[in-house]
Amino acid sequence: MSVGAYCSRRSDARLILSKLKQPPVSVVSCQVIYSQFGLAIHQNDHQERRRFVEWAQNEITVVHDFHKRILFSDEVHFWLNGYVNKQNSRIWSEANPQVYVETPLHPEKLIVWCALWAGGIIGPYFFKNDEGYNVTVNGDRYRAMFTNFFIPELNNHDVQELWFQQDGATCHTARATIDLLKDTFGDRLISRFGPVNWPPRSWDLTPLDYFMWGYVKSLVYTDKSQTLDHLEDNIHRVIADIRPQMLEKVIEN
User: Residue 29, SS3?
Assistant: First the structure.
């Protein structure tokens, strides 16, 4: 949620991920504002979001369940100490004056990627090197994940004509990465530098951000994992228990 914002992001979110059948709402202009997570929201963002809404509405006039055919993807950091580094999926907010949590300078963490659509979840995938150590995400590692993990997993699902969505992170949008995604999905790619542009700073429009990461983190830390292996097992277990019926309701509502 943004702090001090005088503009409606909720109306955009409802248009995209609720019914996507209502007429567009007027967009309230606003100055550049900053959320508590340090992300700037610019006036031009609403123009991009409006264009995306109108495009999605046009798609739904042709395919009524279009919104159920989008594979939303994202990665998140899970800290062993219980801090989740995602814009709107945090266990503790260090900016909250009512709560003080001491965090190590370099806490142990996992970097977890998933893709979600109304029919299921592909993942989790944990970014690690050949020795099994956790690593950060760059373009090479992202493409390796896509080629060695995501595509084989996708082929195991009986799905056709899915669209693929990703945000505009640098590791997602290198030319080699976009070419790889186009080779797989053709024009069914929603991404910065893709055939369909994903509006920037729109974490509230993807169910991974507004639902799944928060839901998962609310369950994986209940037994206070003492090791990264234990935390990883918990993440696998919680995500495996998410049923398609829940995902469909999330996409609809």
Answer: coil
pTM above 0.85, yes or no: no
Place of tokens 């090791």: 227
Cβ–Cβ under 8 Å, residues 154 and 114: no
pLDDT in tens, 217-244: 999 999 989 999 999 999 999 999 999 9
Beta strands 84-85 and 70-79 are: antiparallel
CB atoms within 10 A of CB 103: 12
* 3 state SS of 150: helix
Ramachandran bin of 92, using left for φ above 0, alpha for ψ from -120 to 50, beta for the remaining angles? beta
Which contacts qualify for 144-149: CB closer than 8 Å, 24 or more apart?
145/113, 146/177, 146/180, 146/181, 146/184, 147/180, 149/125
Return the closest-CA partner of residue 111 out of 74, 158, 82: 74
